[in-house]
Amino acid sequence: MRIVKYVFGLSVALMAMSLQSCTQARPENKSGHDLWLGDITSPVFAANKKLLDNYDKTLGDEGFRIKNNQKGDAVVYANTEAGLMYGTYHLKRLYDCGVKVDDEIVEVPAYKYRILNHWDNPNLTVERGYAGKSLWKWEELPGKIRPEYEEYARANASIGINGTVLNNVNADPCMLTREYLEKVKVLADIFRPYNIKVYLSLNFAAPKHLANLKTSDPLDKDVIKWWNDKVAEIYSIIPDFGGFLVKANSEGQSGPQDYGRTHADGANMIADAVKPYGGIVMWRAFVYAAESPDRAKQAVEEFKPLDGQFRDNVIIQIKNGPVDFQPREPFSPLFGQLEHTNIMAEMQITQEYLGHSNHMVYLHPMWKECLDSDTYQKGKGSTVAAETLGKVHGNTEWSAIAGVTNIGDSVNWCGHQLAQANWYAFGRMAWNPDLSSEQIIDEWLMQTFTTDRKFVEPVAKMMLASREACVKYEMPLGLHHCFSGAGHYGPGPWDRSSRPDWEPAYYHKAAADGIGFDRTSKTGSDAVSQYHEPLRSLYDNVETCPDELILWFHHLPWDYKMKSGRTLWNELCYTFEDGIQEARGFIGTWESVEKYVDPYRYGQVHEKLIRQAKDAIWWRDALMLYFQQYSKMEIPSDCTKPQHTLDELRRFRLRISNYETPALDKLPDYTLE
Ligand code: GCW
After folding, report:
1. What amino acid positions are annotated as catalytic residues?
2. How confident is the model at residue 47, as a pLDDT?
3. Mean pLDDT throughout 467-478?
4. Which of 14, 134, 463, 573 is the most buried (most CB within 10 A)?
């Protein structure tokens, strides 16, 4: 049995119910469109909604205007039903947050394509999924329809998401079979009234797998025909199908390079097939080869030479950082390297490297840091946001942003009671990348818990500090990818793997002479040169490189003197210590607001915050005791004492797959006394 589920607060769930009742009784208006009325029982939704008689260009197809009428009631105006829906949700949000409509409000979404990526498999596992199993019960579809499908659509609509990729980028070819397309159709039909389009990840070798063709070469005429026919079939079943997401020639996935072709050849073949139907192809830039000396450089090396060769309905989907969703990365330099190619950012909402659903980490500050970063491609102001919005090269009609979801079938949707904030924040950011982290978390807390400032202020402060705390206890000073290979949960700086670039030592490079990845121009991999000036020099010079990325770009001796005057070794120890203390502090903050939260949610969060603080010490113990073998230096006596020896930690085995988060009682023993 499922207990009460909160989607961005019970209030939105209630809103969702009202939406359903009103969509069932939509009268026709004279323009021939359906008129979306909203909930007639709630005072705020007694407000009028009005489709505009003449198309208002400033609002476009999804924007809205809210104005008070003479009686002082708010009225939502839009060109489309989607606009009315977004406007009504906005009004609801204002109402829930106690904001009165005085002046006219005009809202238009920034990104055209605001898309969730599910890494869900047909067998119901979710790659890097920490909230139970997949929401999509493929074996029950198309016959049985779960209420969650529509709840999901409403929650997304309330934050402006307008597309969803249903399956994992490590794509099972079966998703393109008629059998599965009939299942996908059911979801597409449920999502359509909420202005959400369905997309699929495709397996590039599908022609071989599904039709026994001898090849999947994108220039082969039978292969091209197969894709054209397949796409025609898809659109005959789902007329507004959005298009495809593709992971090709990456981590064992097939791709055009298997046949001596380029990413452009592959992407264009699919793009040509979907073009007549208005579909798009999101082609991922997450590619790297095991033998490369610096994985961080590879996306630029592969995609820059292809600039200008992609069809206009191809969008290159770039992870925020050049390596892989680490708690802090510099922005991917590819955002500033293409001129004639559409690009979009891929953020990770699921916390693969940020403590899964055991840790409370509010991610908006991390994404905003990326979007606000200046690439300097066309001088100052060429931010990642401006690049991906198409403002730098004038290709705004292809602006897009993707978030790898943290949604599963767990009762609270995201595994941690506070992790819905990240789903919410992603949607709000895709709608308006200028919104501050403060505003978004405030909104979410007020709608989800209470508007009482005695609750909202301390909890917002805690959540706003959480990402930086996680950086401090998992990757101080830019030290990246020290994760255990077991599910990327917890530390494993000593771990070995089948590929060098899957081993932490490839990244930390700890040795007697120091630590860090030398990416400088003179002695290192020269990854700095993929950044435009003034960043190139800023990162290249150890004196000017910001502390938080110093070990990302430099290999430094253990006794290197930091800007603080401390040795590098001590700076690492004290940064960890700050992370540990901050994580401990979160427990106290949460305890101080106990009376504002129901016992069920209070208890769940409390238990996890305790584990988070313990994990922070575990991270410090593992990394610093391991590095101590090389540095031969002592952990300062005013830092938290290690609770395990290096040997004990090395012997500890976490047995989890890539589809789950560890149970709290399966983690190493730690005490917070
Ligand atoms: O971060 C890595 C993950 C893989 C993932 C891959 C990708 C879906 O460890 O699980 O595969 O990135 O983004 O393709």
Report:
1. 251, 324, 352
2. 56
3. 98
4. 463
